[in-house]
Structure formats: structure tokens, C-alpha cells
UniProtKB/TrEMBL annotation:
It comes from Gymnodraco acuticeps. Residues 277-294 have a biased composition (Low complexity). The gene is LOC117562057. The chain crosses the membrane at residues 324-343. The keyword Transmembrane helix applies. This is Tapasin-related protein-like. The keyword Ligase does not apply. It comes from the Eukaryota. SMART domains: IG, IGc1.
Amino acid sequence: SSPQIPDAHVLLHADCNEQEVTCELSRYSPHGPQEAQEATHFLVSLSVEGGEFSTAFILQTSVVERDHSTLIQNKLGLRLSPSGTLLTEVIFLVFSHIKSVSAPLRGDVLLYCGFRQQETPLAQEVAVEWRLQHRGKGWKVFEMKTRLDDAEGSTVVLAERKGSSVNASLVVGQGDASLTLSRLKALDEGTYICTVTLGPFNAQQVIQLHVTQPPEVSLSEEKFVLKTDPPQTLSCHCSKYYPLDAQMEWWSLSPEDSEPKLLLDQGSLSSHRQHGDGSYSLSSHLSVPSSGSPGTRLTCRVSHQALDAPVSLTVVVESPTQGSYWWVLGFLIVSVLFFHQVMT
């Protein structure tokens, strides 16, 4: 009997949920030498927009006995049933319940890919291959060959990417060809293609992996005290984030204001710095004049796609305390008396 399509109920509710269903049908030619047979094969790809449903399966036509009343589909030259339909059955399918996944830099991720076949096995040997495509380049990440009869010593593994793995026992027992990647790097981001091959048949699933890392945000000063010297610099550091785009803003709220003001074009940005793991760092420097108002709240706000909400850090501008002036004056007097005593 035909294998069931997992999560097929999603298709029933797609129209009610205003989700677009994409279906692609094409003629399929099995690989390698084939015995003479009347069956014809088709490859079908089904996915639901905005839903976690995607599958590709092989259809095989059912045998229809030919007589003088048999209907023929002219374009394909295939025999139709008495009702005028083309009878087929699913013999092999590859599916995934995720089409896109995000994972943290230096973290681990599982990319799900499963397969099913008809009750009568198409073949005893199954091959699993994972490839990565990114920015116009492609390379093999993982490859495995094993036998579904669980013959001892039958598994052959070729892992191109260190820290990649597929569980052979799950492949054999549950049709689970999921790929595990550990210690993610920025270079691991891209489009992953899971290809499962059973005998002369193969089908694929495509999964997008997005690597993200929220920034660490810090200010150069925990306490900002005005000085009579030239303008002081307050720096905001946005560190170890991925991907590249991060937005840094300075806001000011003086004691006279009721709402904070955006300080447009007053912060100077450093150049992006890239680290060995692919993450980035960026700094913004704000020049604060000595005429600034004590009590003013200066806020650095950082936005990045890996953050659920912008991160804001605030420092309050303080005026020098009178005690500090007397301390400095006393220090100068003591120093002068000391040197005078030494000289005399």
C-alpha cells in the first residue's frame, strides 16, 4: 500500500487560512537500468505558503488493461480508467515540517528531513546526502549509505563538515534522515538540500538555515561627570552580533524636555570589525560638550534582527561636586608646600 503523507491535513485548511498551496508536477525517469514495465512515474512537489508543510513524492501509474474501449490520454499516451482519470499511487516520498529555521552562532541545530516508501520495499539500500548552497557556491556537507535490513557493518559515512551527523538507526528504523550541526559558524548559513535515494528513485527537500547572534551592548562610562575641558566622548559598543546589519541611535532627555530627542547625525560610527567566528562589532561615539545640562539622560539604542526588541542603555550627565573642587585645591596646596620644603 502507499505510504501516508505526513501532516496532509494542513492542505485541507490552507484555503480557510488564506494560505497559497504550490503544486508542481513533472514526468520522472528512474535512474539506472530498468526492467521493461508499463508503469510511468511522476514527481510531485507540494508546499503551503507560510506553513510548515513541504513534501516531494513519486507517483507510479496503475496498470490499466487495454481493450477496444480503453481511453488514451493523447499528450502523454497513457491509458486512462473507465472514468477518464489517470490512476496513480505514491511509492516514495521525502518530507519536512520545517522550511526555514534560525539558530544561534556557536549553537547546535537539527534540520529535519524524513522519508517513507511503499510496503513492498523499492530497495534495501538507502543513501542520504546533504548539500549546502550559499552565495552562488555549493558543497557537500554530509553523505551516508546504509541498508534498511540493518545488516551489520553496512553503514558508510562521509562527513565533509566537522560536527555534522545523521543517526543511522533513525534512518533505518523511522525513516528519519535529519542532519545535526554543532558549533554553528556564519559560514553554515544558507540553503540545505536533503536528498534521499532508494534504488532508482530519489527526492529532495530544501531548508533555509539562518544563523543569528544578538549583540552585546555596553557604554564606555558607567558615570558621566562633566568637565571644563574640551568636549568629552561617550562611546556605545555593539559587539559579537550576526548578521551584519545593526542600527545604533543616540537619544537625549534633558530636565527641561518632556520627551526624549533623537540626536541625528551626532554619533560617529566606527568601521565594522569582523571576528574569527564571522560575528561583527561596531561602535558609536557621541561628543558631549562641557556646556551640557546636568541631569540630561543620554541613551544609546541598538536594533538588530536577532533581538526581540531594541536594547537601550542610559547614563545620566552629572555636574562636578563642590567637594571635588576643594579636594583638588587641597591636593595642589599640599603638593606646593611639599616641593617648597624639599627645595629649602
